UniProtKB/TrEMBL annotation, chain A:
Record-level GO BP terms: cobalt ion transport
Signal peptide: none
Membrane topology per record: Multi-pass membrane protein
Entries under InterPro entries matching the protein: ABC/ECF_trnsptr_transmembrane (IPR003339), ECF_CbiQ (IPR012809), ECF_transporter_component (IPR051611)
Name this protein carries in UniProt: Cobalt ECF transporter T component CbiQ
Localization in the cell: Cell membrane
Main location (coarse class): membrane
Transmembrane segments: 43-61, 73-90, 110-130, 233-253
Keyword annotations: Cell membrane, Membrane, Transmembrane, Transmembrane helix
Classification via PANTHER family: SLL0384 PROTEIN
High-level lineage: Bacteria, Bacillati, Actinomycetota, Actinomycetes, Streptosporangiales
TrEMBL record, chain B:
Name the record gives this protein: ABC transporter ATP-binding protein
Tagged with keyword Nucleotide-binding: yes
PROSITE patterns, per database record: ABC_TRANSPORTER_1 (PS00211), ABC_TRANSPORTER_2 (PS50893)
UniProt-listed InterPro entries: AAA+_ATPase (IPR003593), ABC_transporter-like_ATP-bd (IPR003439), ABC_transporter-like_CS (IPR017871), ABC_transpr_CbiO/EcfA_su (IPR015856), Co_trans_ATP-bd (IPR005876), ECF_ABC_transporter_ATP-bd (IPR050095), P-loop_NTPase (IPR027417)
Key words, A-Z: ATP-binding, Cell membrane, Membrane, Nucleotide-binding, Translocase, Transport
Organism of this sequence: Streptosporangium minutum
Keyword hit for Nucleotidyltransferase: no
GO molecular function: ATP binding; ATP hydrolysis activity; ATPase-coupled transmembrane transporter activity
GO biological process: cobalt ion transport
Location(s), subcellular: Cell membrane
Residues of the ABC transporter domain: 5-235
Role of this protein: Probably part of an ABC transporter complex. Responsible for energy coupling to the transport system. Part of an ABC transporter complex. Responsible for energy coupling to the transport system.
Length: 254, 243
């Protein structure tokens, strides 16, 4: 399906991971994240196994490492925070290469980095193999309130239209010699934002009329059958299932 | 035979008191293609909003294939009247063309094979079948307008109502749309002030001006009457002569 090239996160393909119903993948990622978060930070090799699990999913979905790494930039703020912890942490300290680190800070940093990274990779894999609109339909199957799903659907559809409108307004401003250069220009930009809001609101009204004209009565009709077979649930359950086995196994050993 | 659309003494005032329609009377027979002409502010859009019950008449009646527009009949009325809005971005609100065309019939309770069949058939009729899985915002303006027509064709309407179908189209898209509309086997009411387009597509023309029907006759005769046109702020484009 073709909505790929505008949504940077999605990577079109036809692999077993792509074909899984979205609600199965959503539930699998959520389950996996829960298991990862529940794992004590001292169990280093469990995290290694989790990473291996994700690597095998990436392999099955044919998502290359470079793609994953590029999409992982969202994690950078957490990385910065985590890197600061060993320096600002208190308590027992160790020295390495002439620098002094807090031991508690090092553990806290590792905890944040390892868990956030695993969570981010799992989410990036989900987004890379699931079209945004299917993700929303999947969320609806998982009992997310339909109203929220509809709002998100319209956001997805009208994002480009509104961005385009914004661009036209900027071009119109600049064509008449305006360029936002310092804080005194903020009121002008703010008024444009207000105008954009009103335009979008009016568009919303027109869209609503168009929906009424085609028989809309408050709920979106089910157009795409998204039912999942128990086999598909089983396949999707392999990721959190395997992670749970790792967690329980490590617990048994410890 | 019952006309596809019958409007009798329709009057309407907006809630703020502005009177937009002062008693509109006309009927459109099955299979006719009729142009509704009028200057900006003549009440064309207000009239269109009455045809599928988005606005309800202050006075007078609207009936579609014999069924009066009223609260209890809205669902069936909206199936019978296919409204194509001026801005296809207002009309196409679903993430893909397929879902958008399916929206109307799915609201009528159609599903499964029959739904897929209707979607494909409607897209086929406007020559847009190959765009079925594309998101509407990746289509050209002319393609979006054609898909907008398909979204209402899929509901198998009694009458197709088009609001300014030729606006913002480049000459080729304009001609393509004309060919598609001419090939459709439905009753059409085309609201426009593009007079050559009305002449090209419709045998009959109405002029709505000041909230009443000011003229009703063969398009060629209506457009040949320069005085009539001038009286209602309508004029043929520069250099255009009736063929």
């Amino acid at each position: 399906m073709g909505s790929g090239h505008h949504h940077q996160l999605y990577r079109p393909g036809d692999t077993p991971v792509h074909r899984l119903p979205p609600q199965c993948k959503l539930a699998a990622v959520a389950g996996f994240a829960l298991v990862v978060v529940a794992t004590p930070r001292e169990w280093l090799w469990a995290f290694g196994l989790y990473a291996l699990l994700l690597a095998s999913v990436a392999l099955a979905a044919r998502v290359p490492l470079s793609f994953l790494l590029r999409r992982m930039v969202v994690e950078i703020p957490f990385v910065v925070f985590a890197v600061a912890l060993p320096f600002i942490g208190i308590g027992e300290r160790v020295s390495f290469l002439g620098l002094s680190f807090s031991v508690a800070g090092l553990w806290a940093a590792w905890n944040i980095l390892a868990k956030a990274t695993l969570g981010v990779i799992a989410s990036v894999l989900l987004a890379a193999t699931t079209e945004p609109r299917l993700m929303l339909l999947g969320a609806q199957r998982l009992r997310l309130p339909p109203l929220l799903v509809q709002i998100a659907m319209f956001m997805l559809r009208y994002m480009d239209v509104i961005v385009d409108e914004m661009r036209r307004m900027r071009v119109a401003r600049e064509s008449r010699g305006f360029a936002a250069r310092n804080v005194r220009h903020i009121p002008v930009v703010a008024r444009s934002a207000g105008a954009l809001f009103i335009r979008s609101y009016e568009r919303g009204e027109r869209v609503h009329l168009a929906m009424l004209s085609r028989g809309y009565s408050g709920s979106m009709p089910v157009i795409q059958d998204l039912s999942a077979s128990s086999r598909q649930w089983l396949v999707a359950g392999m990721l959190p299932g395997a992670a749970l086995v790792v967690l329980l196994g490590t617990w048994g050993l410890a | 035979m019952t006309p596809s659309l019958e409007v009798r003494r329709l009057a309407y005032a907006y809630p703020d008191g502005t009177q937009a329609l002062f008693g509109v009377d006309f009927a459109i027979g099955r299979g006719e293609r009729v142009a509704l002409l009028g200057p900006n502010g003549a009440g064309k859009t207000t009239l269109v909003m009455h045809l599928n019950g988005i606005l309800t008449a202050g006075h007078g009646t609207v009936a579609v294939a014999g069924l009066p527009v009223e609260k209890g009949s809205l669902k069936e009325i909206r199936r019978r009247v296919g409204l194509v809005f001026q801005d296809p971005d207002d009309q196409l609100f679903m993430p893909t063309v397929r879902e958008d065309v399916a929206f109307g019939p799915a609201n009528l309770g159609i599903g499964g094979e029959e739904l897929q069949h209707r979607v494909k058939d409607a897209l086929e009729r406007v020559g847009m079948l190959e765009a079925i899985d594309r998101p509407p915002h990746h289509l050209s303006f002319g393609q979006r307008r054609r898909v907008a027509v398909a979204t209402v064709l899929a509901m198998e309407p009694e009458i197709l109502v088009l609001d300014e179908p030729s606006s913002n189209l480049d000459p080729a898209s304009r001609r393509e749309l004309a060919e598609i509309l001419r090939g459709l086997d439905v009753t059409v009411l085309m609201v426009t002030h593009d007079l050559p387009y009305a002449l090209e597509l419709c045998d009959r023309a109405l002029i709505l001006s000041g909230g009443v029907i000011a003229a009703d006759g063969p398009t060629r005769e209506v457009l040949a009457d320069a005085e009539l046109l001038a009286a209602h702020r309508l004029e043929l484009p520069y250099g255009f002569a009736l063929p």
